[in-house]
Amino acid sequence: MNIIIIEDEKPAARLLQRKVELLGLKVITMLHSVEESIHWFSNNQHPDLIFLDIQLSDGLSFEIFEKVKINSAIIFTTAYDEYALRAFKLNSIDYLLKPIDEEELKIAVDKFQVQFSKKESLSLNFEQIRSMFAPTEKVYKSRFTVKIGTQIKIINVSEIECFFSENKGTYIHTFDNRNYLLDTTLEILEEELEHRSWFRVSRKFIVPLTAVKEIVVYSNSRLKIILPTYKEEDVIVSREKVSDFKNWMA
């Protein structure tokens, strides 16, 4: 029995892989975007089961099925609310609510194995499902997962004082004065964060409105932002961004 995981947050994908393999199942690959998934399914034998995140970095995962016919069984992984989850039940679709509970994972896998042993198949109306989850406005990140040793930590955006880049790495700095390495870039984060609440002040920093403690005039028509705990270097608003930053603050 072959399994793949489609999940845009790589630490979350690796954590799910470990949990699945503890149940004696084999994960043959992990995919992280709509584009990557379409390419993989177009060039490889399809698995028996897919763990499928709904919201990927480059769109809804349902877009995969518009390009490639896939007959694999699916267990959705989702962070959507209970109202949306009722739609899953009405369509007889298995789902796991993030963060994924190990006991619920086992129950979902057991249910799939029963269907698999009986050679049962589930016909899914992906257009109908898409309509249930198509956002009326863009869905922004509400939390991030980071790896600390062998542990996975969830950090809500309300805990984040800023994002910064250093030595080709991207980091979260939290209000409790801790840094965490992220497997992403500031360019991607800039698109994932709600623009009314977050602003990329320079090529090195993205800050939230809630963390702007003080603003002072800096040299060459620039501005310096004082954050509550981040003191490693000056957080400077680039000269070309000053006007947009002032409008954002207004």
Identify the notable features of this structure and list them briefly.
250 residues, alpha/beta, Rossmann fold, OB fold (Dihydrolipoamide Acetyltransferase, E2P), 2 domains, 5-stranded antiparallel beta sheet, 8 helices, 30% helix, 31% strand, elongated
Structure summarized in a few sentences:
By secondary structure, the chain is of the alpha/beta class. It is built from eight helices and 17 strands.
What does this molecule look like?
This protein is an alpha/beta fold. The protein has two domains: 2-133, Response regulator (Rossmann fold, 3-Layer(aba) Sandwich), CATH 3.40.50; 143-249, OB fold (Dihydrolipoamide Acetyltransferase, E2P) (Beta Barrel). Helix content is 30%, strand content 31%. It contains eight helices and 17 strands. It has helices spanning 10-22, 34-43, 63-67, 82-90, 102-117, 126-133, 186-192, 242-249; strands at residues 2-6, 26-31, 49-53, 55-56, 59-60, 73-78, 94-97, 143-148, 151-156, 160-166, 169-174, 179-182, 198-200, 205-208, 214-217, 223-226, 235-237. The strands form five sheets. It has a five-stranded parallel β-sheet with strand order 2-1-3-6-7, sandwiched between helices. The chain has a five-stranded antiparallel β-sheet with strand order 12-11-10-14-13, with helices on one face. Strands 15-16-17 form a three-stranded antiparallel β-sheet, with no helix packed on it. A hairpin with a 4-residue loop joins strand 13 (198-200) and strand 14 (205-208). The longest helix has 16 residues, at 102-117. The radius of gyration is 21 Å and the shape is elongated. The model has no long low-confidence stretch (mean pLDDT 86).
